Amino acid sequence: xxxxxxxxxxxxxxxxxxxxLQCAQDMNHEYMxxxxxxxxxxxxxxxYSVGAGITDQGEVPNGxxxxxSTTEDFPLRLxxxxxxxxxxxxxxxxxxxxxxxxxxxxxxxxxxxx
Amino acid sequence: QQQVKQSPQSLIVQKGGISIINCxxxxxAFDYFPWYQQFPGKGPALLIAIRPDVSEKKEGRFTISFNxxxxxxxxxxxxxxxxxxxxxxxxxxxVEDSGGSNYKLTFGKGTLLTxxx
Lengths: 114, 117
Known about the structure:
The structure holds two protein chains of two kinds. By secondary structure, chain A is mostly beta strands. Chain A has no helices and eleven strands. In chain A, strands 2, 4, 5, 6, 9, 10 and 11 form a seven-stranded mixed sheet that branches. Chain A has a four-stranded antiparallel sheet with strand order 1-3-8-7, with no helix packed on it. The radius of gyration of chain A is 13 Å and the shape is globular. Chain A starts with a strand and ends with a strand. The model of chain A has no long low-confidence stretch (mean pLDDT 94). In chain B, strand 9 and strand 10 form a beta hairpin. Chain B is mainly beta. In chain B, 0% of the residues lie in helices and 56% in strands. At the A-B interface, strand 5 of A face strand 5, strand 9 and strand 10 of B.
């Protein structure tokens, strides 16, 4: 199993540009989520999904959209990038019954918005 | 409102020493307390976790001590090794709604541990 994979590893955007951060998992996990990690801030939840077709907002959802058309994929969309979205983004997945216990994180995408 | 407070921000320990990282939480509804370990350039990985019905959990050189009345828990790394150098995050989780579809996992801000050889 590849686990949780994320692409790209690094991306530079200009303010106002849009992009999609890709996340995929091959563990058949129902629960998937996106976090952003900023220096001195820990990890903050952006959006999460409990299964295909079901998504909801986390702690810091503004400026981000998500969709979940399949169990495997959970892309994160930035519609109009802002410098405040410069961060490292982590996707995570978990079996639904373990969602409150164990999160399997991907390697992250480092995003720089100029 | 920061629901999980972690200290110190950074910690330097000599090889063979004991590393101690402390966390405090506010919401008594939290019912699971994991610690995550993150190496540079990698995603966090679950290291060890505890539920509030026990006061201590040990896995190898890693021990969680839990004080429910004080709403505090800590990670102890015995015989610290240079390979333990990483950022450690404490966290606290709870299920937010009766249907169980949403849960809240709140992270501390992290501790950068450096173990000198």
